[in-house]
Amino acid sequence: MGLKPQLLQSIAAKGFEDPTPIQSAAIPLALAGRDMLGQAQTGTGKTAAFGLPILSMLKPEGGLQSLVMCPTRELAVQVAEEISSLGKVLRVNVLAIYGGQSMELQLKALKKRPEIIVGTPGRLIDHLDRRTIKLDTLRFVVLDEADEMLNMGFLEDMENILARCPAERQTFLFSATFPPPIHQLALSFMKNPESIAIKGLDLTVPLIEQFYYEVNPKLKVETLCRILDVEQPPVSLIFCRTKRGVDELAASLEVRGYAADALHGDLSQRERDLVTRRFRQGSTEILAATDVAARGLDINHVTHVFNYDIPQDLDSYVHRIGRTGRAGRKGVAITLVEPREVKQLKFIERHIKKKIQRNFLPTYEDALQKRQEALIAQLVEISQESLGEFMDAANQLLEDHDSTRLIAAALKILADQGKQLEKTDLKPFSASKVQIQLPIGRAQGIKPRELVNYLTSRTGMTPGQIGDIEIHAGNTLVEVPNQYVDEVYRIIKGYGMAGKKQRPNRTKSNRRT
């Protein structure tokens, strides 16, 4: 693609093989000297799309050559770290500048003459006014998430900064949307920009498995813990509606032995930096956050997103789950739904034009089995290590004791060192309908209308009393009123809709309507 060979080595070392669509389109244009408008969201690889060509075109001892504007402090730090990581082999000095950080520390860092500065508009203007940042040698300007900067009231700041930049420069503007003020900004400050449109959600959502659980509001924390115990996600982002909810959930998880942190707007900048660094480095496996605090949190290795509180804004659901399933990886999005929130879930399904699959609450036995499987894997992994100093003791134990009980004791020791399993009986909330499972589905040609006709013609039910019908490849789930359960069992037992003998099963969870 025309990049410096050293950068190709850096890319290969990070495990990247094929460029993302935005990178394939943007890098050649940037290297050709063109201005560029990129319609792309976080998670599409856009940082490398502008970072790599800038790194490739930097001049030795050229002073400050690139300025990147970001809407939030978190995004500025992440973009700076990613560019620094990509350019490590070139020994490029990349500096993040943002409000809330000590001005004295920033002035000290600026004396080291960074080639690339990534910053938020407000703090950048502070430095420009103080003349502690000078743009005489600037060759590249990037506006990252321009629509977010517009939404946060930074339009005048963006115009102010662009007006101070040298006329001879390349400008790259990236935005998920292009409202009129962003179009006008491009017309005013860019030279015949080439347009690229990459829809980030189209790239990420297909890689995300979406599920929901119906939960008892009084047992919500316990339910989340049970799901965590069964899913065993390596890295999770959990969304709560309020700052207080974030703090309470993180504290509840920590008490139960989970490595959890809280991220919200009331944290000091130092605390926010520490929390995001721990999460990015893997020291923390769970991050509870508000929507606002997580904005700009660009971490590709999140495996699971949990909506602990269902979002009230439909677009927020899409933005939340888009935090996983990035960079070609698969992700899982799980939503906890209280009885009063079922209607909101339906609105979300219509908004995303996709049915979100319902899962039934796992039992303590399910969690215990998963825990045992993980402990066995851990024990086997440890057994591959050098164990010379323990072999004599192990042989002596085997001579004196039963080997099965010894292994069980070793597993118990490992289990006691980890988080404790939640034993609470997650009783479903009181329901007026019960979901019944029929072992016949799409493969046998079953249709919703046929099932409704079959049930209403043989019971006293009306079509309106029959709830959701979920037809899967090999089974069908149907909701019926409690008072008709026995009758439905009687008329269906032993008979399938396609004339084959089948046996219905009562499912594990009930639903209120």
Number of helices: 21
Q: Going across the major beta sheet, what is the strand order?
A: 3-4-2-5-6-1-7
Question: What is the makeup of the main sheet?
Answer: 7 strands, parallel
* Mean pLDDT, all residues: 84
Low-confidence stretches: 200-204, 497-501, 508-513
Distance between the termini: 57 Å
| CATH fold category name of the largest domain | Rossmann fold
Residue share in β-strands: 15-25%
Structural domain tally: 4
Helix content: 40-55%
Tell the overall outline.
globular
Write the CATH homologous superfamily of the largest domain.
P-loop containing nucleotide triphosphate hydrolases
The tally of strands reads 18
CATH architecture of the largest domain: 3-Layer(aba) Sandwich
Any idea of the CATH class of the largest domain? Alpha Beta
Radius of gyration: 28 Å
Structural class: alpha/beta
For the structure shown, list the relevant keywords.
single chain, 513 residues, alpha/beta, Rossmann fold, 7-stranded parallel β-sheet, 16% strand
Describe this protein's structure.
The chain has 513 residues and is α/β, with parallel strands linked by helices. It is 43% helix and 16% strand. It folds into 4 domains: 5-198, P-loop containing nucleotide triphosphate hydrolases (Rossmann fold), CATH 3.40.50; 203-362, P-loop containing nucleotide triphosphate hydrolases (Rossmann fold), CATH 3.40.50; 365-417, no CATH class; 433-511, Alpha-Beta Plaits (2-Layer Sandwich), CATH 3.30.70. It has 21 helices and 18 strands. The chain has a 7-stranded parallel sheet with strand order 3-4-2-5-6-1-7, with helices on both faces. Strands 10-11-9-12-13-8-14 form a 7-stranded parallel sheet, with helices on both faces. A hairpin with a 4-residue loop joins strand 16 and strand 17 (476-481). It is globular, with a radius of gyration of 28 Å. Residues 200-204, 497-501 and 508-513 have low confidence and may be disordered.
